[in-house]
Amino acid sequence: MGRPALPVARRLAPLVILGLLALLPLATALGLPAHWLTLVTRAMIFAVAALSLDLILGVGGLVSFGHAAFIGIGAYGTGILITEGQTELLIALPAILLVCAAFAAVTGYVSLRTRGVAFIMITLAFGQMAFYFAQALSAYGGDDGLTLYEKSTLLGREIFGNRTGFYYIALSTLAFCYWLARRLVASRFGRVLRAARENAVRVTVTGYDVDHVRLGAYVISGMMAGLAGFLLANQTDFVSPAFMSWQRSGELIFMVVLGGVGSLHGAIVGALAFLIAEDVLSAWTQNWKAIFGPLIVLFVLFTQGGIAGLMTKLRGRRDG
Predict the structure, then answer these.
(1) Nearest to 230 by CA among 30, 29, 90, 39
(2) pLDDT digit string, tens, across residues 27-60
(3) What domains appear along the chain, each with residue ranges and CATH number?
């Protein structure tokens, strides 16, 4: 009797997660430190990026080690436009997404000609190219980064200045990206992408162009990560080449694996858990990385499915 409830639990999980996130500002009004609002806003921004990576990694089986480049492009695009006096969101955001799409289309077309380790290395190479290009932008801070003295506006109104308002913008963006990713996965496009991960030759024989489907997913994923970069720049009022370093790409992979590869909502949970644990441990000790790394490795090894997989197992035992 308990087994049929599992699919329902999976469908409800993202709604529960987003519902709890929506209540956090109320908790801060009741006494939770205001720092948590800023922290969770940042975590939700990275959850958008992790979700975008899970779309190609978990669903398509494409391990990109240069995905942070899209975050950097989104952040630098925002920073450069603001510096040049263009703060209007309705102009800046489409331009940023278009640049991310173009970069993803070009790099994806080249990268998808390879497989396995070669694909990982070539995405890493493209990510490092973007990183060094940002370092070379001396007019916009170069290696020191670029400080932003304004935020993006909507029809002339500043919408990112209020901390609670920004929180709900980030939450709404995350909810929309999750809905979009879920719709894509459930569509014929998503089914072909998932099938190609299992057996690309068989899918090709049925008449589908696997490379085009994978490239489409890569472009959508890059645009979604660029959107995260746009929000990140407006939250931090600062952009830096570090936003697109290979370490940041590795952290995104960790978030996806920690939450549960391929579950989509697991990417959200993984990003939240990663950044909250990072904040708590860094406040406790300066050597937090020496603790954090082994903890993540042990957790992933023993859960074999991340947080989403662990919750499914616990649910199955309780219903069983």
Answers:
(1) 90
(2) 877 777 878 899 999 999 999 999 999 999 988 8
(3) 5-319 (1.10.3470)
